[in-house]
Amino acid sequence: MELNKKINLTVKEMQKFDVERIFRDTDEPKYSMCFSDDGELLAVCDHENLCLYDCLSLQKLSQVHMRRFHSELICFTHQKHRLLHSSTKKDYAIRCLDLNRHKHVRLLSGHTKRVRALCFQPGSQHQFLSAGWDNRVYIWDLRSSKYTQHFDYLHSPLVAYDPDGLLFATSSDNERIEVHDVRMLSSKPCQQFGYKLKKEAKWTQLQFAPDGKTLMVSTDYSGCFSVNAFNGGFHLDYTGYQNESRLPTQSCYTPDSQFVLAGVDKGRVHVWSAECGQTVAVLHSNSLEPVRCLQFNPKQTMFVTSDSMTRFWLSKTNENNEQQVEGKRKLKSVVHKITPIIDLTTMDDSEDDDDDDEEEEEEQQRINNFSSRRYFGPMPKRYPCIPPPAIRQRRRFWHPVWQRNEDDSPEEGELNDDD
């Protein structure tokens, strides 16, 4: 499957989406999912496991045992082999997991209750935001274990970056949205918007549209809504489904900002026009469980939903996808495939920093220095610096000078080495 350089979806394509592949790795309900920036990888987590999938071949790559941490949120960094995840069992810290080295490389402590929102800054290699039930928002830098900025005046906050990474929005008390400039964090918010909505509806998710023009708020009620990202004015309401269980449903934009998707009960996905709010399609799967997670691939005509299983949805009108799935209709059955297992339950490397990366850089620099000297012989090894041993013989034992004690003095009638 080839990556689409620019996705322009139509109503017909949205109506033709169908489940192409299903993975049932565990029976646990899924709590979070995230695509890598290039759309090639997908990470899905429950309380005990994190699964990594290849979005090009629709295959499972690896499974990480993380029952020691009870992760509820995951987020890719701008490096495909590293992702962030929250913790709810051992502590409430955020950890950075290196999938290549099979270990944690950073521990970020600060939250005293569960983290409810986690997002990485577009265009930055190190900055990200977190919001927790402790009513605090933290700004982090992966190069440090301590936060760089925090806000403690918000209640039940949510956070989201704009597509350019220059602004971020925070919410408070299900009634206020503030917009901050990342270049002026010490000053007051650039804009503040207040809303009076149904008290029964609690906000569960905050996100900017890919074009940056609107800001969408998901709720645990029967609908979500969008507001103007520039003046805060109410834009549209996306309704038409029931959420009797009051689950924190998720919604998302398509990459071209033309449509809004929301996962609802019985495995259904509602699709609306982002411009007029009209229902475009109601997509069905073979599940009877409510959709807990929903994400649209940023680079492909694909979206993924999950409850206790993970489902990949493809549009049957897309030519690239038709070539990919031709003659493979049987892939709709549940896939069980042996994949590499990474076990993080027996050890906790969260305290390990990136010192190993610095050592690797030093080693590479040493190799480059030798290669620049046009040295064509074998690469000399770097031995530890040990002082040359000064050794003397006493009877039939050898002892280094630094281990000599008072009992080693020559007895009466015994000659010294100098004699």
From TrEMBL:
Pfam name, any one: WD40
Keywords of this entry: Nucleus, Repeat, WD repeat
Positions of WD repeats: 108-150
Molecular functions per Gene Ontology: chromatin binding
Name listed for the protein in its UniProt record: GH11495
Main localisation: nucleus
Family membership noted in the UniProt record: Belongs to the WD repeat SWD2 family.
Encoding gene, per UniProt annotation: Dgri\GH11495
Subcellular location: Nucleus
Organism of derivation: Drosophila grimshawi
InterPro entries for this protein: Swd2/WDR82, WD40/YVTN_repeat-like_dom_sf, WD40_repeat_dom_sf, WD40_rpt
Renumbered residue ranges of the record's region Disordered: 342-389
UniProt GO cellular component terms: Set1C/COMPASS complex
GO process terms (BP): RNA metabolic process
Biased composition (Acidic residues): 346-363
